TrEMBL record:
Annotated transmembrane regions: none
Domain Gfo/Idh/MocA-like oxidoreductase N-terminal: 15-124
InterPro entries assigned to the protein according to its UniProt record, in alphabetical order: Gfo/Idh/MocA-like_OxRdtase_N, Gfo/Idh/MocA_oxidrdct_glycsds, GFO_IDH_MocA-like_dom, NAD(P)-bd_dom_sf
Coiled coil: none
Organism field: Paramuricea clavata
Keyword Transferase: no
Protein name stated in the entry: Glucose-fructose oxidoreductase domain-containing 1-like
Domain GFO/IDH/MocA-like oxidoreductase: 140-270
Record-level Gene Ontology MF annotations: nucleotide binding; oxidoreductase activity
Alphabetical UniProt keywords: Oxidoreductase
Family per record: Belongs to the Gfo/Idh/MocA family.
Length: 383
């Protein structure tokens, strides 16, 4: 019999963590920092899941997915495993009656994403969210508010540039393989595809992309295995209401992180540099002004090598705060107030992002503009 938790925690669902990688080790302390209880963890490697559970004080761990999903105390499943497993785990969790939050992107292709959408629609009362947490970075929240108020006028350009260190570790794994979901396009680009839709309110109709793998081997990854995941990516998107998007992702900058997202319109422009928002109103002056300064406190993450940029951690924490609010004062742990996560990415958004990613990969192969296919082939049952 489970011990009784305090009143604040008792109204929150207990968490089951799917995956033992870097993202899982980040999300566990963040979930705890906002008040969630971690009940169990799953991994397909017995040694890795045992080590993670012991280092993060997770009471139950298993290599059998059904064993975690069928535990009564697990109400919310956090799917942070490699992309090829995400759709299967998500659909099974929803079928059993669990709430789900899933790391982006949604699976390896549109078929995976479609299954996730179908499952979420089949069980609409369950929470089903994609972890595109940049929507909750305060600077982007403020930017979207100003855009909706007409600060920029009619939108013409969405321009995003990210410079950061390599996404690879010291061992060969799925991160090194483009087919398995590795690379800057999937891991980083997916978030900026979603962010573009969130900020502009427009969706991509056609895309053109270039994916490059300049480092096929590293100091630690040698021999017959070579890296196929992209370490430099540049893609453009024609949006459905006239805006044009350009995204450049460079993972060849060790020890450096720089992120700039600019939205330009007929009346002005807004730009977020890391976590700070600047703006120029052409109706007032050509002088760039600071409109929001990020001063948020980042929750401490202990015993984690190569910490993610502070703004990513802060955005994640803000997103989890919204998820927490959606569960407070509910009749049971399977119910949530979706008004508190109205700005969060749903599985439909995950399908859109996955469709854009697939089109960019195709464009890289054909060297041509590729239409984004957004038609969903709904089925009666997603199982």
């Amino acid at each position: 019999m489970a011990l009784r938790r305090d009143s604040a925690q008792s109204s929150l669902p207990s968490i089951g963590i799917i995956g033992t990688g870097y993202a899982s080790r980040i999300i566990v302390p963040l979930l705890r920092s906002v008040g969630f209880n971690i009940a169990a963890a799953w991994g397909n490697n017995a040694v890795k899941v045992k080590n993670m559970a012991e280092s993060l004080n997770i009471p139950v761990y298993t290599t059998k997915i059904d064993e975690l999903l069928l535990r009564n105390e697990v109400d919310l499943v956090c799917v942070f495993c490699p992309p090829h497993l995400r759709a299967d785990v998500t659909v099974k969790a929803l079928l059993i009656g669990k709430n789900v939050i899933c790391e982006g992107p949604a699976g390896l292709d549109k078929m995976d994403a479609q299954r996730m959408v179908d499952a979420s629609q089949y069980y609409p009362k369950l929470l089903s969210l994609m972890a595109h947490q940049l929507r909750y970075l305060p600077a982007f929240v403020k930017m979207r508010e100003l855009i909706s108020e007409g600060f920029c006028g009619d939108l013409t350009i969405y321009d995003c540039r990210v410079e950061m260190e390599s996404l690879l570790g010291t061992k060969y794994n799925w991160l090194c393989d483009l087919v398995m979901g590795g690379g800057g396009l999937n891991l980083i680009g997916s978030h900026f595809i979603d962010l573009c839709q969130f900020l502009t309110g427009q969706k991509a109709t056609e895309v053109h992309g270039v994916l490059k793998t300049f480092n096929k081997h590293t100091e630690h990854i040698q021999g017959f295995r070579h890296i196929t995941s992209d370490d430099f990516t540049c893609f453009q998107m024609k949006m459905d209401n006239g805006c044009f998007a350009n995204v450049s992702l460079n993972t060849h900058m060790p020890g450096k992180f720089k992120q700039e997202v600019m939205v330009v319109g007929t009346k002005g422009r807004l730009v977020v540099r890391n976590g700070d928002l600047y703006g120029v109103s052409l109706e007032q002056s050509n002088e760039e002004k600071l409109l929001y300064k990020e001063r948020g406190r980042v929750p401490p993450l202990l015993n984690i090598k190569n910490l993610p940029p502070d703004i990513y951690v802060l955005a994640f924490e803000k997103w989890l705060q919204a998820v927490k609010k959606s569960f407070l004062n509910q009749e049971d742990h399977r119910s949530s107030n979706l008004d508190f996560v109205s700005s969060a990415a749903k599985f439909d958004d995950g399908f859109y992002v996955r469709a854009v990613l697939d089109a960019i990969v195709q464009s890289n192969k054909t060297h041509e503009w590729v239409k984004v296919e957004l038609e969903q082939q709904s089925e009666k049952q997603p199982f």
